[in-house]
Specification:
- There is one protein chain.
- The protein has an 18-stranded antiparallel barrel. Strands 4, 5, 6, 7, 8, 9, 10, 11, 12, 13, 14, 15, 16 and 17 form a 14-stranded antiparallel β-sheet that branches. A three-stranded antiparallel β-sheet has the order 1-2-3, with no helix packed on it.
- By secondary structure, it is mainly beta.
- About 10% of the residues lie in helices and about 55% in strands.
Amino acid sequence: MDFLPLPSSQLPPSNYAEVRQERSQRTLASTPALNDHIATRFAVELPIEVRSQLELFLESLPDPDAIARKLIQSTKVAQVGPIKPNSLPKPKPKDKPRPVLPPPQGEILNVVSDRQEYDINTQVFVAEGKVVIKYKKSELIADRVQLNTKSQEVIADGNVFFTRGNQKIRGTKLTYNYGTVKGELLKASGAVDLGTLVSSEVSRTPAEIATNSITISATGSGDTAEGQVRRFGFIADRLILDGDNWTAENLRVTNDPFSPPELELVTSKATLTPISATQSRLELESPRIFFDQGFSLPFPVNSVIIDRFQRFAPALVGFDKRDRDGVFYQQSFDVVTQPNLSFQVSPQILLQRALSSSNILGFDIFGVVATLNGAFDNGQSLSARASLSGLNISKLDSVLRANASYRVPVFGDYTLLSQYAFRDQIFNGSLGFQDVNNLLGTTLLSPNYVLGDSKISLSYQISAQLVGALRSDIQPNEVSSLIRVQGAAIVSRAFPLLRGEPAPAEKESGLRFSPKPIVPRLDAVVVLQGVNSFYSNGANQAALFGTLGLSGEVGNFAKDFLDYTGFSVSYTQAFSSGVSPFFFDRIADTRTLTAGIVQQIYGPIRVGIQQSWSLDTGNLFDSVYSLEYARRTYSVIVRYNPNQGLGEFLLRISDFNWTRPPSNVTNVQNGIEQRN
């Protein structure tokens, strides 16, 4: 094989070379010479007939000169460069059309760095100095990166920042395979949204973490941010990535944006496994909670489900005088964790009943609460709860309380609420506790309307229910059922009077004792509410309620002494006609006054009190006392209501979907039951 360039005198110069094969240049003897040779050799030896046949055969052979010229002519056997149209075989008439193949598709590897090297033989790419690699919808930033383009294996060293989708982590060394989506990161740290893993960030400012937290209002209750999952920062010696599964060794998790963190969850090994697009399971080995880098407690559970459902805190010490004879301990467990369904069981030990009982091993000292929640794609939702204040089945009618509700969106923004309740425990102001044996009905709830530019809010509801409860219109008083049709409307207007400046969102100022900076304020509110109830026995109860309220917060809760005061006061006047045949919804208090205050005593310690009086009788009918140890990332709360015989001791972690269990008591406010 020789490379033969074409003479420049015949064709213009070309950047390509053709490979041609050179045949032998020796020519064959001509036919006459061959004939003479044959004639000389066979003149005497061959008979005439044989010689005649041989000559005819030789004459039929091709011309030897033509064969020689064809053999010595150079023939193209290979070509370097673009294919020329004349070199392609021409299709035959019966050949099928050749398919047009699309251009090959591949992932684009984008590399930016100070120095780059690529070895063609090993297919290994090495980049050094401020390396940024974008490949397969991921971004890798490091000081040095070695990437094998054949095996898709990458090794990154130095200050490593790795982004995959919306997950962002950092560490000192990353080994990762883009093909198998597996790898490991040493000295890993970052922030992750445990709810959906769709909004993780490497870092964030204190102001960002402070906007989604839990605070205590002037009345001592949690605000609307309670029970929501937010981002958590983490540090691990080794983080193993396996698709969407994460396994961390020597893991430390915190919801504190500052270092050192005041609250940490520490475990030797943790595994985060996505169950669905809205659920993740966090498995922990021997977890402990550390407070201020010193005091620690064992974490009460080894498995946590993170999703859109609010869940009870894993452990709770509560007080229920009426049903459970005092103090009890409750621990919650997830039984069913589906994307649209959650079932949680919370066993209870009735401690005070056990201490006062002669049979400490009896079924009466145990209780249980079961909660079922469902959220469906069409906007419908299900909620059900059953509570047993004892496990003695023979007393089931006196220890079981249950309720269930189902919400369905109708007529656009309206909601159709179907409810059932068994032994609903209702607290009705001066009338105290009343039990509703059975309640079955439907309520149509309107959305909240804002009337033009007036900032006046309007909402209303209409309900029809079959109610079985203690009646006063028959003697002797006994439980009986009636149909109740009720309509209610409420109009309200809030007036922001004063606004102060929050303290900076910094560790030693606005975020010292609070998960978000407190804005000093003073607000007023005016509420007008009308309720009309019709009963199947012909009775009717109607009332118009007017409420004036004032609430505010003074201070920033950043200094050591008396730097926070939250307060609220409201007065309600009712104008009523008619009387309900039931006790549980009867309007007995036509003039009420409610006032509450939460006051910082020293450092993170706050005390609160809220009381309600009936001005008709001068009696105090409801009160709540609270003591709180409040920190930026957590709070410890003791709350007690002597009038209802309820209390709790609760550890609450900011930015998590744990909420305190709802009370077994339904309060009546302005003639309408406020069910949990």
